[in-house]
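Agenda item 2: D-malate complex prediction
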Amino acid sequence: MARIAVTDGMAPEAVLRLEKGGHDVVLGFIEHEDLLSGALNKFDAIIVRSATKLSAEIIAASGNLSVIGRAGVGVDNIDLEAAGKAGIMVVNAPNASTQSVVELTVGHLLSSLRHIAKADRGLRSGKWEKKQMKGTELSGKCLGLIGFGRIAQGVAKVAQTLGMEIHTYDPYLPPKVAKSQGAYLHKKVDTLFQTCTHISVHCNLTEETHHLVNESRMKMMPGKQGGIHCGNHIVNCARGGIIDESALLDALESGVITSAALDVFEIEPVSDDNLLVKHANFHGTPHIGAATMEAQRRVGFDIADAVLSGLNGKRPSTLVNGKYL
Ligand code: MLT
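Presented output:
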């Protein structure tokens, strides 16, 4: 029997699956200081979402762990190398939340273009701003997807049915994949910005992608398409830090960017003095891309299976730090 800590919550059915596997599951957030002083020593596995950060120091203080499960896609809150060198497998659940993030991204795009959040804020404060809420259609516009993995491809499909032309920049993508999805693959990220009035971010946060959406690239966006001055619009439901938020605020203020919608931020939770989230042409959500009942159920099952497989001495198919083990 293994002891498994689940620190950031998990669907009850998935907890049951672990327990049915004969394991002892302990649910509850563990404070950073307690993790540093070895609170994980009595566990064989831990399952986290994004709130628990597993740094090299914490991993070094967690003597008995053999598996770390990330109930989600992004593993930027776990030191993969430190875990691997300590012989700990890190597994994730990369497929389970795809549809939920696709739907939130499309929701943000539609909300931006038709001022849904802004109009709602007006209504709540007693304003009837019909004239000010004239929007533009997604149809006939070029959507630039940074990264073209599962989520971006899902967004592309929906956007195509709405009449958008799909462009992408993904240096790791075989050109035939873009072609098969009817997307134009750009060799340079700059040409994507020069072509598209709508940009949605779908890559991981790495050294290479940190602040990839910056002042000079935002200024390259054309602001009109097919004779319509639709402005420039940016959505990010991937990871904070890929967009330079201070440059984005300046771009909203100067009108270079017409609307911005973010689900993820450089610093989460967002602080009270964050001026970007208060801008009239901004609307956001608090990192809820995967927060649907369906996704959380699938994420729970997928991560439970991956952790069980690791605890049984197998190499899980979603192992992410294999190169360090
Ligand atoms: C993920 O990486 O799976 C998502 O950002 C969701 C999350 O962290 O909660």
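Discussion summary: The domain at 3-96+293-324 is CATH 3.40.50.720 (Rossmann fold).
Owner for follow-up: CH.
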